[in-house]
Amino acid sequence: MNYVVDFEGFSVKGFFVIKEFVVASIDSEEKNHFILNSPILNWNYLRSKDRKSINYCEKYLHQIRWGTRGKHFSELKSFLNHKLTEQDTIFIKGSDKLKIFCKQINPKCVVKDINDLLSYAQVSKDWTSKAKELLALVPNKCPLYFHKLNHHCAFVKTEVFAQILLDLNLFNQMQDE
Ligand SMILES: [Zn+2]
Fold it and tell me: What is the residue range of 49's domain?
């Protein structure tokens, strides 16, 4: 099976805290959507830089609160490691996200950067304008959270990324290799 993954969260002390995580199938309608607990932190020990960045994300980016409760990270990890096998492929956009995902989840499946596929197919310019267009068009329909902008919702982004991979036929090109 082929999946698109995206997530949103906070970068604290050089570590990425995942708050919203989505794994959506490209081959079917299956979507798995998680809101996760934040780790327990002593706020007094946080650098003001980290506190400011948390506030900024809460107010202006994904708008998920640090204190929002959800599932424990270990539940997500065991769900994914149970689900994904060597035969599965995950598509994720951007090398930073890909690294965070692999480091924290350590999945058995193949993980590919959507940006690499796009540059391979020489569609990076089309991609940017098309993605922006699509993200603006999708009505805000995150089932778990209210985000002001679609491009800060992991759920909406996986839909758009999957659609673009299918539209641009990148997915098939890759499979033909
Ligand atoms: Zn969302």
Answer: 2-176
